[in-house]
Specification:
The complex is a heterodimer of chains A (about 120) and B (about 110). In chain A, strand 7 (about 65-70) and strand 8 form a beta hairpin. In chain A, about 0% of the residues lie in helices and about 55% in strands. In chain A, the strands form two sheets. In chain A, strands 2, 4, 5, 6, 9, 10 and 11 form a seven-stranded mixed beta sheet that branches. In chain A, strands 1-3-8-7 form a four-stranded antiparallel beta sheet, with no helix packed on it. The N and C termini of chain A lie far apart (about 35 Å). Chain A has about 120 residues and is mainly β. With about 110 residues, chain B is mainly beta. Helix content of chain B is about 0%, strand content about 50%. In chain B, the strands form three sheets. In chain B, strands 2, 5, 6, 10, 11 and 12 form a six-stranded mixed beta sheet that branches. In chain B, strands 3-9-8-7 form a four-stranded antiparallel beta sheet, with no helix packed on it. Chain B has a two-stranded antiparallel ribbon with strand order 1-4. Chain B is globular and about 40 Å long. At the A-B interface, strand 5 and strand 10 of A face strand 5, strand 6, strand 10 and strand 11 of B.
Chain lengths: ~120, ~110
């Protein structure tokens, strides 16, 4: 199993530009999570999906952030327009279900720098 | 709402010495508890988990953790650390009801001295 695959690994962009982060979950996992990691706030859950349906997006910081999961093997997190305070590492994780006992498998992360 | 506290931001340990990383949680029922490790530039990897049963759980890389309900704690231990254990360690709690992922602590940065 290739694990959770995220791209790009690193992105440097200028303020105001659109950023799209991509995630391919583990095959057979029906739950997908987007986290953001910063020094100040640690790991924050942004949004999660179950069976491709967004369940809770209350962690999405602003309307500039949006996420989609068009099928079971692909999800995107989009920031438009981007701002310097969006600089962070964004992690995608997947699991077999939404029960709190389900183990999350994380991708390697996408490090975003907004200048 | 559940919460996790890792009181130590940084810990420095000599190679070969024992290690204990602290984790306290807040949750109304029996929690699902996890320890993850994050090496530099990498994602989080599961070290071990507690769901029920024996309160001392064994994980990968020689780590263990003990669930103490009376203290609301789930401390991570290792009898002898190796330089490769230098990383960020996260404690997390999951709710039994489901649908809200995990709540993570802020992490403890482990530094290994030669």
């Amino acid at each position: 199993d290739a694990g959770v695959i995220q791209s790009p690994r690193h992105e440097v962009t200028e303020m105001g530009q659109e950023v799209t982060l991509r995630c391919k979950p583990i095959s057979g996992h029906n739950s997908l999570f987007w986290y953001r990691q910063t020094m100040m706030r640690g790991l924050e859950l942004l949004i999660y999906f179950n069976n491709n349906v967004p369940i809770d997006d209350s962690g999405m910081p602003e309307d500039r952030f949006s996420a989609k999961m068009p099928n079971a093997s692909f999800s995107t997190l989009k920031i438009q327009p981007s701002e310097p305070r969006d600089s962070a590492v964004y992690f995608c994780a997947s699991s077999r279900g939404l029960n709190g006992a389900n183990v999350l498998t994380f991708g390697a992360g996408s490090r975003l720098t907004v200048l | 709402a559940q919460s996790v506290t890792q009181p130590d931001i940084h810990i420095t340990v000599s190679e070969g010495a024992s290690l204990e990383l602290r984790c306290n949680y807040s949750y109304g029922a029996t929690p699902y508890l996890f320890w993850y490790v994050q090496s530099p530039g990498q994602g989080l990897q599961l070290l071990l988990k507690y769901f029920s049963g024996d309160t001392l759980v064994q994980g990968i890389k020689g780590f263990e953790a003990e669930f103490k309900r009376s203290q609301s704690s789930f401390n991570l231990r290792k009898p002898s650390v190796h330089w490769s254990d230098a990383a960020e360690y996260f404690c997390a709690v999951g709710s039994g009801g489901g649908a809200d992922g995990l709540t993570f602590g802020k992490g403890t940065h482990l530094i290994i001295q030669p």
